[in-house]
């Protein structure tokens, strides 16, 4: 699918299978999400540009690679996005963070926005938007709308599971934003849940159901 990368790394797929199991506890689910997020972060950043910097090792002066230009913003779609955020910050501790509070109304499946915070210089940074679930796409489309309104120009969207319907809607709304996911599942059910999916990611992370 154009503009969509499926991350097939065996460790990602193995951990995802455990997360899907309904017997997996809240604690295990949270730990696996954190572990998987570092692997997903590795893939979503694998083509970042490098530039050479002069440094001194204890033995000699060398040219050595560092990330080029202004760095990253990780934009977490609350609540469940925070499950991916923590592991990504383990890998890139200097990244700036944006929080986008959006939940979807259970009846209408429309996004309800309740919070927004982003760094001032977001226009100069690569923004990686994170949320474990891309279902209808309504929440992620709204979050990216908001980030673009604030000036973001260079964005990627990273999730764990995506429904084909959500990918189509998201790509139609934001064709300039590539999508990275560990799986494209079968379909959405009548309540807008991803099938086979893993249930409600936020509830499974925080034990709220
Ligand atoms: O693509 P969509 O149809 O919009 O659905 C996906 C959204 O639903 C979930 O959040 P939820 O609304 O459950 O909020 P939460 O993270 O606070 O649990 C999920 O984390 C996404 O943000
Ligand atoms: O399957 C789904 C759909 C939306 N949000 C979730 O957390 N899970
Ligand atoms: Mg959410």
UniProtKB/TrEMBL annotation:
Keyword Magnesium recorded: yes
GO BP of this protein: UMP salvage; uracil salvage
EC main group: transferase
Database matches in CDD domains: PRTases_typeI
Domain Phosphoribosyltransferase: from-to ranges: 6-208
GO cellular component, as recorded: cytoplasm
Pfam families: UPRTase
Alphabetized GO MF terms: GTP binding; magnesium ion binding; uracil phosphoribosyltransferase activity
Binding site for uracil: 194, 199-201
Pathway(s) the chain acts in: Pyrimidine metabolism; UMP biosynthesis via salvage pathway; UMP from uracil: step 1/1
Cofactor: how and how many bound: Binds 1 Mg(2+) ion per subunit. The magnesium is bound as Mg-PRPP.
Activity regulation description: Allosterically activated by GTP.
InterPro entries given in the database record: PRTase-like, PRTase_dom, Upp_B, UPRT, UPRTase/APRTase
Cofactor requirement: Mg(2+)
EC assignment: 2.4.2.9
Annotated positions binding 5-phospho-alpha-D-ribose 1-diphosphate: 79, 104, 131-139, 200
Key words of the record: Allosteric enzyme, Glycosyltransferase, GTP-binding, Magnesium, Nucleotide-binding, Transferase
Catalytic reactions of this protein: UMP + diphosphate = 5-phospho-alpha-D-ribose 1-diphosphate + uracil
General function of this protein: Catalyzes the conversion of uracil and 5-phospho-alpha-D-ribose 1-diphosphate (PRPP) to UMP and diphosphate.
NCBIfam families, alphabetized: PRK00129.1, upp
Family: Belongs to the UPRTase family.
HAMAP family, alphabetized: Upp_B
Name this protein carries in UniProt: Uracil phosphoribosyltransferase
Organism: Ectorhizobium quercum
Name of the gene encoding the protein in the UniProt record: upp
């Amino acid at each position: 699918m154009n503009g969509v990368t499926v991350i097939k790394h065996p460790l990602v797929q193995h951990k995802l299978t455990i997360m899907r199991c309904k017997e997996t506890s809240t604690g295990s689910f949270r730990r696996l999400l954190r572990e998987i997020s570092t692997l997903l972060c590795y893939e979503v950043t694998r083509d970042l540009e490098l530039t050479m910097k002069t440094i001194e090792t204890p033995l000699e002066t060398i040219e050595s690679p560092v990330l080029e230009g202004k760095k990253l913003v990780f934009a977490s779609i609350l609540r469940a996005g925070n499950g991916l955020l923590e592991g990504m910050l383990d890998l890139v501790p200097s990244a700036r963070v944006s929080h986008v509070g959006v939940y979807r109304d259970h009846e209408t499946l429309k996004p309800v926005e309740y919070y927004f915070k982003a760094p001032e210089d977001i226009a100069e940074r690569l923004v990686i938007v994170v949320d474990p679930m891309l279902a209808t796409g309504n929440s992620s489309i709204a979050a990216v709308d908001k980030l673009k309104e604030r000036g973001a120009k260079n964005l990627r969207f990273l999730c764990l599971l995506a429904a084909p319907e959500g990918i189509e809607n998201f790509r139609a709304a934001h064709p300039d934003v590539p999508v990275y996911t560990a799986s494209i599942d079968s379909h959405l059910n009548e309540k807008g849940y991803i099938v086979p999916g893993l249930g409600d990611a936020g509830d499974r992370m925080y034990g709220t159901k």
